[in-house]
Amino acid sequence: MVKKILTPFQKFVNIESFSGMLLFGATVIALFLANSPFNEQFQAIWNYRIGVGTSDFQLVKPLLHWINDLLMSVFFFLIGLEIKRELLIGELNSLKKATLPLFAAIGGMLFPVIIFLTLNNNPDTTRAWGVPMATDIAFSLAILTLLGNRVPIGLKVFLIAFAIVDDLGAVLVIAIFYSTSIKWGLILIAIGMLIILFILSYRSFYSKYLTLGVGAVVWLLFYKAGIHPTIAGVLVAFTVPIRQRINLETYIDKLCEIVANVQNAKDPKTPLLSEKQIEEVDNLEDWTEKVQSPLQHLEHKLHNWVAYLVMPVFALSNAGVVISGDAHMDLNLAGVIGIGLLLGKLVGITSLSWIGVKTGLAVLPKDVNFKQIIGTGLLAGVGFTMSIFVANLAFKESPGLLDSAKMGVLAGSLVAGISGYLVLRFNSKKKEEEEASAGFQE
Questions:
Q1: I want to staple 356 with a disulfide (CB 3.0 to 4.6 A). Which of 33, 103, 339, 364 is the partner?
Q2: What is the CATH number of the domain that holds 362?
Q3: pTM (2 decimals)?
Q4: Domain residue limits at 41
């Protein structure tokens, strides 16, 4: 039973970990090309304008904007699915489970903002206060994976849980503070369409084609209304039902019945399926679709695409910061963002987790100590994907400040990742060492 529960979780961790390695590789390539003789051609790729347009309607944007606005909507859609799952049946579905990750996430969001606003002395860069708020779960889990079985499973669950709350906070910040010139008429139309999807979901009606079609219209309405369109991905994800149309026991009974029918309908004269067998195979597909949770099915299908395509492409197109030549770099902005990620996450997550445990409102996961919480607090300073995304929103009209913000994210994330690894490395024992030590003491 324990193996059945842990296997999907471990698969999720493995996907996120490998995704972190791909992100790292894409970042290195982007930095190399941006600071090489090929920089002009490299930037020209992302600035190439594509789209559709008529005399009355224009939707033509640089490739970089399509990646950040449309491709990343798939990433945000997956985040929405993960948040809904965790709230309903996962690590955030009860107060007892959610308390420690919630404390950690609140501290991890508030303290970076406080540090940024305290240290930043340039009014022109204040808009970047949201950049150091978010944790990159792929990079963080990739680093944890390097530690192997030195890291207890409870620590990984803790990291994933507070990172998901962190993502929810980042989504709200983007929706509220990084959207401008809002056209409320279009927003009301989009909300009306989302309400229809919610009602249909509540009445147990779900069609992936309808969801895709309505999602595309809502995305366009958000884009035209001034709300960042990626938020549409999260909201549409919340309309996807999590419940199955039939339970597992019914499916198993039907499966056994279909297997028996297929065996009985075998025609010994031909290696091909008989008409009855084809009919039973069709029945199997129908019953399989009914037993699958739409949310779980979509999450499973999208996870690899997001991990192995969407996020690496985002990194490749956004991490190319020019750090040589005549590039103007705002070192104060870069430094404040880096410090916000490193110290803000560390102090916020560690202090509020400590307060939660000491007041009895939260408990540490099994086999996890506070030194490991400190190490995880450092790892949470690896911001990357969401941090660079917010930086794009904050400085979309200021390329110099955008590069400075990205440099701060990269530097802060690098130091946080190395520091977190070292703290966890020297404060965690391998499982075999703990078992040997326990045996010796006996």
A1: 103
A2: 1.20.1530.10
A3: 0.80
A4: 2-179+228-243+293-441
